[in-house]
Design brief:
- The structure is a single chain.
- The protein has no helices and twelve strands.
- By secondary structure, it is an all-beta fold.
- The protein has a single domain, classed as Immunoglobulin-like (Sandwich), CATH 2.60.40.
- The strands form two sheets. Strands 4, 5, 6, 7, 10, 11 and 12 form a seven-stranded antiparallel sheet that branches.
- Bound molecules: calcium ion.
- Calcium ion binds next to strand 2.
C-alpha cells in the first residue's frame, strides 16, 4: 500500500523541462551519469548520493527502474509517459530509511500534483549495489490506457535541505524512451 506523503518540491523549478528528442525507442534504456558530480555536505562520504547508472525496463506488466550508485537519503524518479505534455507525469519516491515506494502524479513543471496514488504491486527490490523500483504499468495508465513508452529522470535527494545531490542525466532532463517490449 502506498502511503500518503508530501514531497518537498525540488528547487530550480523555473527551468524549462524536457528534451526535444531522445535516443531510439527500445524496451529498455540506460542513463549513464558521471561519478563524482554529486553534492555532499559536511562529513558525508564523497560518493554519498552519487548516481551512476539508471536502467529503465518496460515490459508488458511493469516498468522497472534500477538505480546504481549511491542513493544517499533517498531517490526521486520522474517518469515521462506522454511526449506531448510538458514535464513528467509521475514521481516515484523513496527514502532510504523506509521500505515504501510512493507514487504521485506531477504537474508539467515537475511538482507533485496528487500524492498517495493507490498502486497495488508497487515495490522496492533492493539488491547489492543497486535499487530497483517495480511499478505496475496499470498504475501509469491514463483513462485506462497504459503508456506506450516511458523515460526517466532520477535525482538523489537531500531530504534535510530539500535539494538534489545528483541528477541523471541532468536537471529536468530525461533519458531515452523505453517502449514496452
Ligand atoms: Ca553521478
Amino acid at each position: 500500500m502506498i502511503r500518503a506523503r508530501l514531497i518537498a518540491p525540488t528547487l530550480l523549478a523555473g527551468l524549462v523541462a524536457g528534451t526535444a528528442s531522445g535516443p531510439a525507442v527500445a524496451g529498455s534504456t540506460t542513463i549513464n551519469d558521471p561519478a563524482g558530480d554529486n553534492v555532499t555536505y559536511d562529513s558525508e562520504s564523497a560518493d554519498y548520493g552519487d548516481l551512476t547508472t539508471i536502467k529503465v525496463r518496460h515490459s508488458a506488466k511493469t516498468v522497472k527502474i534500477t538505480v546504481a550508485g549511491n542513493g544517499g537519503d533517498g531517490l526521486e524518479i520522474y517518469l515521462d509517459t506522454r511526449a506531448k505534455r510538458s514535464g513528467p507525469e509521475f514521481l516515484v519516491s523513496w527514502e532510504s530509511y523506509l521500505s515504501e515506494v510512493f507514487l504521485s502524479t506531477t504537474t508539467g513543471d515537475w511538482e507533485v500534483a496528487k500524492a498517495n496514488l493507490r498502486c497495488s504491486g508497487a515495490r522496492l527490490a533492493d539488491t547489492a549495489g543497486s535499487t530497483t523500483f517495480v511499478i505496475p504499468r496499470k498504475c501509469l495508465a491514463k483513462k485506462g490506457k497504459k503508456p506506450q513508452r516511458v523515460r526517466a529522470n532520477a535525482e538523489a535527494i537531500n531530504f534535510y535541505e530539500s535539494v538534489a545531490r545528483d541528477e541523471a542525466p541532468a536537471l529536468h532532463t530525461f533519458g531515452g524512451w523505453a517502449r514496452t517490449g
